[in-house]
Specification:
Distance between the termini: 32 Å
Shape: elongated
Strand content: under 5%
Mean pLDDT: 91
Low-confidence stretches: none
Oligomer: single chain
Length: 146
Amino acid sequence: MLLAALVLVLGFYFLLLGRIAVSLIGSGDIAAVIIGIGVLILPIVGLWIVWATVRAALDHQRLARRIHEEGLELDISELPRRPSGRIERAAADELFASVKREWEAEPDSWRVSYRLARAYDYAGDRSRARETMRRAVALEKLEREG
């Protein structure tokens, strides 16, 4: 619901930017036309970013739901935590090492790739978590379509 509201507000904002851009381009003044083209690019890039983000979020949610239904979520309930609530580094590293061994045994499984992405996240390696989650999404899509 909140996501839909944010997308709607962004859509309205992009529409306003588009109208301003068309107005500037239509003025005929060379400086205004150049600024108008620049302003027109902003909503186009913005729409692409929103679309990619929403699509990725929906893909990740689908995988999380399937993992939950299959009972394959990582159990982190007993891991020690810092006062901030984050898992202690040593425990996160140990969890990661365990899941990485699973992945090395079955690297083409979207389920194991999903678990590895979550382990990367718990260990604090966000860039590898995103990369591995993209791989999990692609593998899951192949399974659904195949």
